[in-house]
Design a protein that fits this description.
2 copies of one chain form a homodimer.
Chain A (H helix, E strand, L loop, with lengths): L7 E5 L3 H13 L4 E5 L12 H6 L13 H8 L1 E4 L2 E7 L4 E6 L4 E6 L2 E4 L3 E3 L12 E2 L4 H12 L5 E5 L3 H12 L3 E6 L10 H13 L3 E4 L3 E7 L2 E7 L3 E3 L2 E4 L3 E3 L2 H6 L22 E3 L6 E2 L6 E2 L4 H15 L13 E5 L2 E7 L2 H6 L4 E9 L10 E9 L5 E8 L7 H10 L3 H4 L16 H10 L3
Parallel strand pairs in A: 1-2, 1-7, 2-3, 7-18, 9-16, 10-11, 10-16, 11-12
Antiparallel strand pairs in A: 4-5, 5-6, 8-17, 13-14, 14-15, 19-20, 21-22, 22-25, 23-24, 24-25
Chain lengths: 454, 454
């Protein structure tokens, strides 16, 4: 089912997943004809960097572009075309209908192998005022450019962020740093629904210290407008004045093209793929934010839209298209971000997720220093861990703390991949020196604590 | 073989290993009588912090003391006595001969359970001039105090460090920061013998940029003196003027007492213990820098003197003494330090060690960014990894790089504990966000590279 000699590999979507598949396939197969259609103006851009562009930590939007279309064309012989939107997949004809957005013309393009990397789009609830000016999502580079323009040229002053997830938090910092008055509205009673309540409480405290006003447990009912521009956000309990609104309510996989073509979706609503990134249709592959992943801890399919996962899946598809035999084993639900000086990270199952799965779990919470107590510049960090009571199987962890705290989650993520049990992890030989850690790494202190409950 | 009700647990050595065993045993067993004899003036001190004390990053030597003897006495009911040196163990009488160094009197003290935590001592080669004034090791707190006094009160100006290991490097930075002219002499052709040549080369470069003069591949032949004070270091090729010499040539386990009592040592020359920290003599336990460890990757015994290992072993012994059933699985050879802004870490087997063990290995070296390219404040890091060719078993890794690079070694250390193979590690779900990592963590880039050679 891999590509045959001289075949045409056609890719829908020119961001991380698609282009990383394209490069990998090219590396292994100089004979393939490779074409990639991207509806936006850029290929291979770092969407995760956009909050930092808005904040001004990244100067130009172009700095976020990892590799422009010309480089793909010239250096990799990949015909990457921006401003080209695929509007239909015809599996019978083995062709796609493409619209050249600059010329506004359509044409059919044949393929032998098709890779779908259509990504995901921000959720935009059908509420009154949703289409007003001043309403923004953050998904493509032009979104970031528009927000920055709103700040710099339209002098927006009062921002409301809808949604307390990763994008919401990062934008709260970015906009606060830019001098805006920032409110954050979240339907759930806590920010960061992927963290447990107490850990999320630590994050909320940081946001408040930063000057962000939190409206938790409040649903948005409408967006008020004045002359077609947003002027306020009406929640179940408040009316918050706003001249800039950021929607950070999560994303949905872009599966319209695939669904209409009859390519099977999974239970999560994203495209169903095997470990080799093949859909159920021969010769059709899918990668990135439009597919569902296997969650190695829950044993269930999950929809997790993250750049690092997209890149990995792209590589696996590229290797397989090129005649290799790679497997994407799945994810363990690792994620990280920072707000101000505080880092927050999670992996595996939270307490809530363990409960929802009906697992018999134990959990522990500890606080510790990031460095030896006597070494300057250290701070404190909190760790929560979860394990299965009967088997001792490690299930997941969460970390909130100062510099150096967050990336410690990787130890726990690695343990999840290896299927380790808590007793195996108690004496992990983790790196110790006073500038890096207390003599017992905080992760080990947390594991020690939970071991006592098994 | 655990302690019986009301028994007397006697501990020789009041640093990390011994006192952590004492505290753990106390926590589980309020009935035990616990006595600890420490020959130095402090209990439970952070010896690893001494270079930072010399540098001035830690103000007072007392800041390094995690828990003073009074606290053990008052809060834990542990009779911790400093300035008490144990001079003999009599296994027949089940007693030790103790010298009260303040009163200069000896007495016999009975025990039911004996825990040996005598630590290790710096190697002092029997070379001419070794006992001159101005010659220093760095093992106990008074050593650090003496060095700082030499700088602050005796105005030492020209320091020579003998040995390019962890202590040597940390002292090179400390003394450079204090304004001394620093030379470092190392018998081997590279610094940091636990790193492979190219990685050590990166470290050497940093030392040189810091102003340290390196004399590599040169053995010390004698220490020149003037009026009983060191005035120079004569190597096989140079005569280096010096008014302060630091010996950083490694340590040897303090096993004299144990050996004379007939407690069996292992092949490494350190005390032989099982996974529960029991020696071969019933009722006699040993922990910390005086025992040998099982190296989980080489499958051989190794002598590794590190505070974090000592603490873990102390805890295991304490649990077992208290009636529990804990196992110290062994080490994977993880270590970390920093010089200036550069961090260096290692775990498992180096290329040289894999070779020495006769393993059929492959290795890979990569350079990558510590953060997303567009995110400010990132730097570069180098990673070397080693794997077994036939089985794909991951064997070890080394990292040299800027802030955030070093602790990434913990991912590799965890994988070693779990016995992971490289193909299992290629798509580890490690935490990604632009302030923390490129979209492919450098560790994964290195693993990807080595996978291509399997």
């Amino acid at each position: 089912m891999n590509a045959q000699k001289g075949e045409h590999l056609l890719i829908i979507g020119g961001d991380a997943a698609g282009m990383s598949a394209a490069s990998q396939a090219r590396r292994q197969r100089p004979d393939l004809k490779i074409t990639a259609f991207e509806q936006g103006p850029y290929t291979s851009y770092g969407a995760c960097g956009m909050p930092y562009y808005v904040q001004g930590l990244v100067e130009k939007a172009e700095d976020l572009v990892i590799r422009p279309a010309e480089v793909f064309r010239k250096k990799y012989d990949i015909d990457a075309r921006v401003l080209h939107r695929v509007e239909e997949i015809d599996l019978q004809k083995r062709a796609v209908l493409v619209r050249d957005l600059k010329e506004n013309k359509t044409f059919w393009e044949q393929f032998d192998q098709l890779l779908i990397a259509t990504g995901a789009s921000p959720i935009r609830p059908k509420l009154p005022g949703i289409d007003a000016r001043g309403m923004h999502s953050l998904s493509l580079i032009p979104d970031g450019v528009a927000i920055r323009r709103a700040i710099e040229e339209e002098s927006s002053k009062q921002a409301v962020i809808v949604g307390g997830g990763y994008i919401g938090l990062e934008m709260a910092e970015a906009l606060t740093a830019r001098g805006l008055e920032v409110s954050l509205v979240e339907l759930l009673p806590q920010v960061m629904s992927t963290l447990d309540e107490d850990m999320a409480g630590l994050v909320a405290k940081i946001l408040e210290q930063m000057g962000v006003t939190l409206y938790l447990g409040e649903g948005v009912e409408s967006f008020q407008t004045s002359n077609g521009h947003v002027s306020g956000v009406k929640t179940s309990q408040h009316l918050i004045p706003a001249d800039l609104v950021i929607l950070g309510m999560g994303v949905r996989p872009n599966v319209g093209l695939a669904r209409e073509a009859g390519i099977p979706l999974g239970k999560t609503g994203a495209i169903l793929v095997d470990e080799g990134m093949r859909t159920q249709v021969p010769g059709v592959w899918a990668v990135g934010d439009c597919v569902e992943s296997f969650h190695l801890v829950s044993g269930k399919k999950a929809f997790i839209a993250l750049g690092t996962v997209a890149n990995k899946q792209g590589r696996v598809a590229g290797i397989n298209l090129g005649g290799g035999n790679a497997h994407f084993p799945g994810v363990v639900g690792t994620a990280i971000t920072r707000v101000g000086e505080m880092e927050m990270a999670r992996t595996g199952l939270s307490v809530r997720e363990a409960e929802d799965l009906g697992l018999d779990y134990v959990t522990a919470f500890i606080r510790a220093r990031t460095r030896a107590k006597y070494y300057p510049g250290g701070g404190s960090m909190a760790v929560r861990v979860v394990a299965e009571k009967e088997t001792g199987r490690f299930l997941g962890g969460q970390i909130v703390g100062t510099a150096g705290a967050g990336k410690r989650i990787d130890v726990l993520a690695t343990a999840l991949h290896a299927g380790m049990k808590v007793p195996q992890m108690l004496y992990l030989d983790l790196a110790y020196a006073p500038p890096f850690s207390p003599v017992w790494d905080p992760v080990l202190i947390a594991l020690r604590q939970i071991a006592g409950k098994l």
